[in-house]
Write a structure and sequence with these properties.
703 residues, alpha/beta, Amino acid/polyamine transporter I, elongated
Length: 703
């Protein structure tokens, strides 16, 4: 994404009223801005500083937010427990708080509205990144294909748009195959592209203007702003396109190591792109009239077509990287209850994390085609792109300031210096980009507002549902007072009751037994939740505990996932669950029971993989082989109950706004949230529950 920026940076920067004079001051000034922006933001900020603020090797807006949530009480995720802090990925370095880190933590703890405001701020950055997934393919492919007009001047613009649309449709149509089948070509294509543009840059410097290096002096930036005034300032919205992709680079950190990105960027990407920008500026200094097609005009005639092919291929690769990042971001949002449940498909059985989301893919394609056909102009798309990029970078800077205070506990002067240096530069570009709102900059604003509204409403409705579950849960003591039979008929089998609660008995269980006073011999309350870490290892996945004494036959299982984990089990979940509970029974952990509504201490994490796999093998081999085994009677009863069958009990809840609610709230809940709930993936589909054994208990909750 970063490497394809030379296709459109100069073109977009000089697309307004900014004109070229004979003394080349404007070209030198723009080149100076590009060089120092690229050096300060891409190299110093992201490569040397931001890359260090990773969350167990994961990068991006959500990773920074997760890091902050673990070190301060900022998380709005429900069902967080002290036991979660014992996860290996949750590791927090214990060090004394500084006065400013302590003050910032207490401020957010005392003001819940600011915690919600921080979430909205993070969602803003996330939505702008999703906007990149729409704008990057449009501007990259359209810019690359437009080079054909140099060889065929009579070619109508409509044909350029049609060719671009065909490439885009092909790109999105191939997403379901996954990137792993063609990924081996990505590195050679990008390497060839970087070598091409750097080689052409050196050629243009030598041929047209060997003194172009003088433009690297910051003096030319001041001179540029002084001589061009308002028009020069507004044109900076095009300069910022030179660093598109830095946020995606940070977000994709989990697929690589920090060191590999630092080496690749510092030794290859940075020098190649600097030479490319220098070479194009050298060409422009002698060819002022070619400003709107300077990239392809600067290519020597004998190598035009090979470079054109590589440019188009590089544009496709850059677009592919951003589309893949968008899938990853949407998946994280789903895990953190900030996006409706969607179908997530694994595209590779060997490479973890390569996913495909059909609904999101086709929506992205339609929006991308709409932008390409509707605007038909890379300059207008560039204005939209610039606003999206600068917004995301500024969000990252603000989150980094909080990380430096709360997590790294840096001195206040260092934090202020970071904010002033990088924040001021980004605000300068942000102000220039906002001036382009009427000329295409409105697109990311509208898209981000729509996505933010969806995310916030979904998060609001989900939290209200959890609040309803908490307020209407049945007391454990009340259930236990009914005796081991629970005041109803206990039939053979295992009943898996899915709930959002980590304590207490869910209302759907009471609702079920009230209408049908019979239940299974073994009851397991299952809570599947996300925790504020990127990944949870398999050995730490389950937390097991009892609900009441063992004669009641009730257990609670909490299944934990990180925000980058894919909540789709690749193994037989029922066998794994039952074997884990048998291990819990066999290891003598049964005396720790949940006899009240505060059972934090009662859960045990079972992580003996060998025993677990052994138990699974024993269980699958059948009860007949267990007659002479040394398993306890309770374990044998659980195995017999499994042989009798497993039933899945799931709540099917509908949200309704209170009659006294405002019109806006009624519209948000009764129309928008209800529409999203009806059309998103059902929890039974997400959990891959067999419909023949599924019971749904309907309930209505008011918010």
């Amino acid at each position: 994404d970063i490497s394809t920026s030379p296709l459109y940076v100069y073109k977009t920067t000089f697309s307004g009223k900014l004109s070229l004079h004979e003394d080349d001051e404007e070209i030198y000034g723009v080149l100076s801005f590009i060089f120092w922006t690229f050096t300060l933001i891409a190299l110093f900020k992201y490569i040397f500083i931001v890359m260090s603020a990773n969350d167990n090797g994961e990068g991006g807006t959500f990773a920074l937010y997760s890091l902050l949530c673990r070190h301060a009480r900022l998380s709005i995720l429900p069902n967080q427990q002290d036991a979660d802090k014992k996860l290996s990925a949750y590791a927090i370095e214990e060090s004394a708080d500084t006065w400013h880190s302590s003050a910032l933590k207490s401020f957010f703890e005392k003001h819940p509205r600011f915690r919600k405001g921080l979430l909205i701020f993070v969602l803003l950055g996330t939505c702008m990144t999703i906007g990149d997934g729409i704008l990057t393919p449009a501007i990259s492919v359209l810019s690359a294909v437009s080079g054909v007009k140099l060889k065929f001047p009579g070619l109508h613009e409509n044909y350029i748009v049609i060719i671009s649309c065909v490439i885009l449709v092909g790109l999105f149509s191939l997403q379901h195959h996954g990137t792993h089948k063609v990924a081996f070509m990505f590195a050679p294509i990008v390497t060839a592209w970087l070598l091409c543009i750097s080689g052409i840059g050196i050629y243009n410097i030598i041929k047209w203007n060997p003194h172009i290096f003088r433009a690297l002096s910051p003096f030319y930036m001041l001179k540029f702003l002084r001589s061009t005034g308002m028009e020069g300032w507004v044109s900076l919205g095009g300069v910022v396109l030179s660093i598109t992709g830095v946020e995606t680079m940070f977000a994709d950190l989990g697929h690589f190591s920090t060191l590999s990105i630092k080496i690749a960027f510092t030794l290859v990407v940075y020098p190649c792109l600097v030479l490319a920008y220098l070479g194009e500026a050298a060409f422009l200094s002698r060819h002022h009239d070619d400003i709107q097609r300077s990239f392809y005009k600067a290519i020597p005639e004998p190598v035009f077509w090979p470079v054109f092919i590589v440019a188009t291929s590089a544009a496709v690769v850059g677009s592919q990287a951003v589309i893949t990042a968008t899938f990853s971001i949407i998946s994280q949002c789903c895990a953190l209850n900030c996006f409706p449940r969607v179908k997530i498909i694994h595209t590779s059985s060997k490479i973890y994390g390569q996913i495909y989301i059909p609904e999101v893919n086709w929506i992205l394609m339609c929006l991308c085609l709409a932008v390409t056909i509707g605007l038909r102009d890379t300059n207008m798309i560039g204005h939209a792109y610039g606003l999206a990029v600068t917004t995301v970078m500024f969000v990252t800077t603000c989150l980094m300031v909080m990380v430096m205070i709360i997590v790294w506990k840096q001195k206040i002067i260092i934090t202020v210096a970071f904010m002033v240096l990088f924040g001021s530069v980004e605000l300068l570009y942000l102000s220039a980009a906002f001036f382009k709102v009427p000329e295409g900059g409105w697109i990311p604003l509208v898209l981000s507002l729509i996505f933010m509204a969806i995310m916030f409403l979904w998060n609001y409705g989900t939290l209200k549902k959890h609040q309803f579950d908490v307020e209407n849960k049945v007391s454990v003591n009340r259930i236990l007072s009914l005796g081991p039979g629970l005041g109803m008929v206990r039939v053979p089998g295992i009943g898996l009751v899915y709930t959002n609660l980590v304590t207490g008995i869910p209302a759907i269980f009471g609702h079920f037994v009230t209408n049908l006073p019979a239940f299974h011999q073994v009851v397991i309350f299952i809570c599947i939740k996300s925790v504020q870490v990127p990944y949870v290892s398999e050995k730490e996945r389950f937390l097991i505990g009892r609900v009441g004494p063992k004669e009641y036959g009730m257990f609670r299982c909490i299944v934990r996932y990180g925000y980058k984990d894919l909540q789709q089990e690749n193994y037989n979940f029922e066998n794994r669950l039952v074997s884990t509970i048998i291990q819990f029974v066999e290891t003598g952990e049964g005396e720790l029971t949940e006899s009240s509504d505060a059972p934090e201490h009662s859960f045990t994490c079972l992580n003996h993989e060998e025993n677990m796999m052994h138990n699974t093998h024993v269980m699958i081999s059948g009860i007949q082989n267990l007659e002479g085994s040394c398993l306890k009677d309770e374990s044998l009863q659980i195995l017999k109950a499994k042989e009798s069958g497993i039933a899945y009990i799931l709540g099917h809840c509908h949200a309704k706004a209170n009659k006294s609610s405002s019109f806006f709230k009624k519209f948000a809940i009764d129309v928008v949230y209800a529409f999203l709930s009806k059309n998103c993936r059902g929890p039974d589909v997400v959990l891959n529950l067999p419909h023949t054994s599924l019971l749904e208990v309907g309930m209505i909750y008011y918010v």
